[in-house]
Amino acid sequence: MSEQTLSSPAAAEASPQGGSQQFRNEIRRRRTFAIISHPDAGKTTLTEKLLLYSGCVATAGAVRGRKTQRAARSDWMELERERGISITSTVLSFEYEGLLLNLLDTPGHEDFSEDTYRTLTAVDCAVMVLDSVKGIEAQTKKLFAICAQRKIPIITFVNKLDRPGADPLGNLGEIEQVLGIHAVPLNWPIGTGRDFRGVYDLVDKELKLFSPVPQGAVRVPTETAKLDNVSEEQLDPLLLSKLRDEVELLECAGEPFTREAFLEGQITPVFFGSALTNFGIELLLEALHEYAPPPAPRPSDKGMVPADRPDFAGVIFKIQANLDPRHHDCVAFLRVCCGTFTRDMEVSIARTGTRMRVSRSQRLFAQERETMDVAYPGDVLGLTIPGQFRLGDTLCIGEPLQFTGQWQFPPECFATLRCTDTQRRKQFDKGLLQLVEEGAIQLLRDPLAPSQEPILAAVGALQFDVVQFRLESEYRAVTTIHRLPYRMARWVKGSTEDIENLKVPSTGRQLIDEDGLTVVLFDTEGMFQYCKKMNPNVEFFDARPLR
Ligand code: G4P
User: Fold this and answer.
1) Average pLDDT, the chain
2) Fewest C-beta in 10 Å: which of 98, 189, 192, 324?
3) 38, 42, 73, 102, 156 from 128: Cα distances, Å
């Protein structure tokens, strides 16, 4: 079906707010993005500073639960604290210069990359944070690849220019060589390490010289100057002369920046700064304002669906139980893709055709929640309706449609899980079901012995700790875990006969998933290739197809 049909006047009539000017303005002013980075590159600090510079908080440190200061809000948070990592995703919505920015937080630790991958299915743009000294690290590479695959435009923020060893030219070269994307600097650091004094705005051709404030808790005082009009009091002549040379070089050799090329994912604008000292934050925020795209059309089984389709539709990209253990609830995160969501609206789940009234819709701001009565494309809602949703579900009104995309990612770690207390078996089963529904883990079973202990499959091994921790703290089911030597899983598609006669190497293992689909575990890529050769009539997939 064409976009035309999906935005038909009939549909507009069905949802009167749909076609209004106000609706279009709400779409136009939204920017939904995530920050991707390797742990410790400075994502949390940057988030905090974006809130500071947007005027959302008066003092940095008010919102962020810093590793060292996090209050023990729950046992769940305790695990985060113990490990010094961020596990739960939240959504920060803040206004800046007439725009509404929705920042979807993502867990930084690689073992939670599946959560992060899914969150990236719900954004229109990403800010990639690099540590200037460490350059491009493993997790950045993985997350960049996901964004590139989904054609998500990326703004780069090279952080920690205040640290000795920062290397801006090296950073640019590495982005191009390792990530294979053209890097176009839009500002340039004035000095680095202890000499880091500010940034040169390559667009406005203006120096921004900052005076540090303790811990970067408030906005830093900023002086501006032109390259040919800087006094010695403002900037050391040696730093100025170096800056002049660098700017000349960049202006001669650099590729011009165009928003089109950025939106198509061909280039990434690069900003240098320091999240800790607030240097360069304002320019990054301005770039988000100027260049980040409003909610984009989304692929569905009925073709691309534009955000201004009047009828509401949205997709569940993440499910998480007991986000707030005081309520023992289960939150499904929904990204509004088109139309206007209003609380108490009756929607259908496209997968089942089930109709339901959505009355418990919430905005999730850091650890806080508030009821959300209206939401527009680009917004993220937390829905607390237990047991109804699965990952990837589309909720819609009017003509049914199902958004397409990948919500399951290839598992690489496997283990058997056993409940040590048979008295708690029921709770154990219930907890496991919940975790599967959330997409935290996948459950595989031996088709010949389905009552045997299940095999857990996860993208990262730390996910097993979380499973054990949550089963124990939320369901009081103590478990033991035993890691298995497999490194990859492949789902198998073919005729019943071919699957029945599947030849699996002795080091592999044939199992079924919760939907009864056949999956084979392998310990090496070589064994997988060998199995493929032995079974030419079947197809192998590295992730479970959407249910
Ligand atoms: P993450 O969310 O990406 O994991 O990184 P986070 O912001 O927590 O930052 C990791 C460490 O790097 C923190 O130090 C933070 O203060 C420091 N940092 C962030 N941005 C900058 C910067 O621009 N310059 C410098 N020099 N350091 C920066 P920490 O000691 O590990 O934690 P904390 O006690 O400061 O919270």
Assistant:
1) 85
2) 98
3) 9, 10, 29, 16, 5
Residue whose CA is at the smallest distance from ligand 1 atom 16: 276
| Ligand 1 centre distance from Cα of residue 339 (Å) | 39
What percentage of residues in the chain have a pLDDT greater than 90?
57
List the residue whose alpha carbon is closest to atom 25 of ligand 1: 160
Q: Which of 72-81, 156-165, 332-341, 498-507 has the lowest mean pLDDT?
A: 72-81
Q: Which CATH architecture has domain 298-396?
A: 3-Layer(aba) Sandwich (3.40)
What per-residue string of b and e applies to 80-113 under the rule 16 or more CB within 10 Å gives b? bbeeebbbbbbbbbbebeebbbbbbbbbbbbbbb
Q: Atom 9 of ligand 1 has which residue's CA nearest to it?
A: 42
Spacing, Cα 40 to ligand 1 middle (Å): 6
DSSP reduced 3-state for 181: coil
Most confident of 152-166, 220-234, 243-257, 397-411: 152-166
Residue 394 near residue 403 (C-beta atoms within 8 A): yes
CATH code linked to domain 21-88+101-291: 3.40.50.300
Residue 241 neighbours by CB distance under 10 Å:
11
Give the fold, CATH level 3, of 413-541: Alpha-Beta Plaits (3.30.70)
3-state secondary structure of 103: strand
Q: What is the pLDDT of residue 515?
A: 82
CA end-to-end distance (rounded Å), the chain: 22
Query: How many Cβ atoms are within 10 Å of 467's Cβ, its own excluded?
Result: 22
Tokens found for residue 408: 């399951």
Which pLDDT band, with edges at 50, 70 and 90, does 453 fall under?
confident
Residue 364 has pLDDT above 70, yes or no: no
Closest to 263 (Cα-Cα) out of 162, 126, 166: 126
C-beta of residue 358 within 8 angstroms of C-beta of residue 383 = yes
ipTM of this predicted structure: 0.98
CA distance 368 to 371: 11
- Strand stretches in 98-197, DSSP E: 99-104, 125-131, 154-159, 182-185, 187-190
Q: Whose CA is nearest to atom 17 of ligand 1?
A: 42
Query: Is residue 306 pLDDT above 90, yes or no?
Result: yes
The domains spanning 21-88+101-291 and 298-396 adopt the same CATH topology: yes
Ligand 1 center from residue 170 Cα (angstroms): 21
- CA 273, CA 300: separation in Å to the nearest integer? 39
Q: Which atom of ligand 1 is nearest to the CA of 275?
A: 23
Domain locations in the chain?
Answer: 21-88+101-291, 298-396, 413-541
Residue 116's nearest CA partner among 137, 136, 94, 142 is 142
Residues 15-34, mean pLDDT to the nearest whole number: 83
Q: Give per-residue pLDDT as tens, 463-480.
A: 788 788 888 888 899 999
